[in-house]
Please model this.
Amino acid sequence: MSVGGSTGIHSFSGVPRAEGTIGVRDRVLVLPSVICSHVVADRIAARVDGAVSAPHDHGCAQLGADNEQTRRAFLGLARNPNVAGVVVVGLGCEELQSDSVAAEMESAGVEVRELAIQGVGGTDACVEAGASVATELADGREDRRDSADLSDLTVGVVCSDLADSTVDRADPLAGEVVRRVVEAGGRAVVAGSERLVAHPDAAREATAPSAVSDLEALFERHRGAPAKVTRVARRASELGFADATVAWGGRRIEEVLAYGDRASIDSGLAVVDAPSEFAEAATGLVAAGAQIVLHVTADGIPAGHPLAPVVKVSADPGTVAALPDDVDLDASAASVDDALSRLLAVAGGEPSCAEEHGLSEFAITRVGPSM
Amino acid sequence: MAPTFTGYRRADGRVGVRNHVAVIPTSVAASSVADAIASAAGSPARATPHQMGTSQPRPAREQTERVLAGVGRNPNVGAALVVELGTEDVDAESLADEIAETGKAVETLSIREVGGTRAALARGEELVADLADEAGRARREEADASELVFGVECGGSDATSGIAANPAVGNACDRLIDDGGTASFSETPEFIGAEHILAERCVDDGVRERLLDRVSTRESMAELMGVDLRGAQPTPGNQEGGLTTIEEKSLGAISKGGTRPVRGIVDYAEQLPVGGGLVLMDTPGYDVESVVGKVAGGAQIVAFTTGRGSTTGNPIAPVIKVTGNPKTWARMANNVDVNASTVFGGESIAAVGERVYEALLAVADGRRTEAERRRLEEFAVNEIQPNELADAGADA
Amino acid sequence: MKGRVFDEAALVMSERDNVATAVDDLDEGREFDVDGSTVRLAEAVPFGHKFALAPLDAGDEVYKYGEVIGRAMAAIEPGEWVHTHNCESTRGRGDLAAAEGGADA
Model:
């Protein structure tokens, strides 16, 4: 099947993983299990080629479902095909203990090392020891590449606004990409629960019967609570469901995932229960299995994500003009073939704009107050 | 005669113990740029990266604004750069104006206006260099201990915290208050089970009712999540260190504030008074968010007791680490400033308290803490969660 | 420090307390003479942890600092280690509220 379009490239070379998936990057993840160890995690990653850190605000003083969600997200991230191995760095006294987080990853087949600041005797010692195990994981990478195509991709899509330019031009382009990926046998995972919550009946109709109970669970989680991204929620309710979800390609929702969960469908569209805030959504998408993320942003939010390359799409003429180095695709000019070409080129190793400037943002969404 | 130290007297009369240039993003969308600007600019720039969204529900956004303004207004900040993407609900100009009211130099930088990430990094570095020149004109001059606002925190607690480190830091709080200063402790979930003792020390019924109300709201969060508080308090490290229940942890925790009357309780990141005695702040027990709340409230220095060995600092205020655990002192001395475990060898609480107070004044005078030496500068803003807002019946 | 230390190894913080805190790693069988009665450790008690000074029934309040820190979940003999396995908090019990169907939430 011709999947890249007549003018684009059709395949890319990726990193084969043991479980049969393909990574588009080959990164060692240095993951703090709690905010208290995040500076140490940053320093470890900075010392090792191929290592990235994922600093976040959580891991302790979280209750119940909120705590579980952070733990699930950790595991989902560790199992992403872009990850060659993980170093979990704890403080030692936190709720999400680094050793149990690491043990869970190990049982899932992840190549993992673990250490805690209190265990090794302080921050200086932890940076040294962490850099040494991260180097070991980085050196252990096989440097193999296999040819892959759209059917091997899980493309994450987050649209962080519903501005007119987004709804009119950028979301339709993203939606076309989603359609082509799914038709080629690949997967699309999308964020933006505000859109479902604003239109529950339409959302039920758009969802496969097997996934409706998970959709109802999503509604239950959001019942009575204001949305985290006020502007998107407001606009989503003004627009109809179809207009608010153009970027989802008009495909049937085959799976509704809790934040942090991995997609289990072989192909098709899955929705992640994540807000339309870019950094929080991107983490949810990467945990769901996305190797690459399409970010539709009228505002031009510039940051990437530590684990997956992010392709920035904007149709706002002001943004495209103001941020020429930060926007990968001008949706007012690009065709779906252009978009797929860029996506596959980035999947094959070409740096995205965010990778060029090198700044990334990592966040995990919360569902309960800090204690 | 009250002790003195040398600090940076600001136009609003408050005295800083450091002279940082704060680089403050208005949202997560500008956070990595702010961080990179501060890294590239080097000393004395300090970034306060955070993860608050561009379009938060109103009460959450107001809290974010209060924290960011408070951080910029902290007297340890000599000048500030506010960095925005340019589409946030938090307005960089009004945030800058609020900070500038204290008389310090403030600039704003819009990533969109300046032409993208790379241009923002270059322009940000120039602005910080100019601001550093401006701030660099300040000179340390003599100030009185009564001008100090001392934040007190405990984290990674164990049984030694309530026996040694917290009472010692509490003794230092008493000394500072007796010398006319302000001490503030917070972490409301760690009042649970000890609130009756604090309530007895409140100066009037208004403060008492407010305190008990805040404790009850925090306690009800466990009900909101439908779980046992024990899922988060005490933490596994607390338990391994001998703390069995939140009540036990709280009874040990409140001793870090000393024994003087409770004069008030302010909201998260609300301004703390100078010369105000003991004033509580309603914050989560989550250390980094809690410390940031007090620094946004104007605390120039924080003492942080830790039995297990928490290593976190803060970008704006020096954090003095105090441990009462002899094993932690032995293993992690290069992350700890004051050894309070000598209590177990017979040193009196008052004597350790005097050492903590001396450390407070020396750090105020410019001595760097272990966290400062290592640039351990954790920063996070407490985010009011949607289910809290729903529970409080707040409109978005 | 506040309270009385016995044999340089066990701290009783208030007269009212029915537990003592180990200020050293204590071995099983160690004996303390506390106000005329002998308390023999039924098990090892690590530094910072607590053991009972008096017999407790299930539901009895456990005192440290002269204040209630929780209640016994089972009968506890003098010299037994007192911790999360046999002493529970009475506060922040959202689990109990949930079990009651949230009727009082």
Summary: The beta strands of chain C are 4-6, 10-12, 19-22, 31-34, 37-40, 50-52, 61-64, 67-72, 81-82, 87-88.
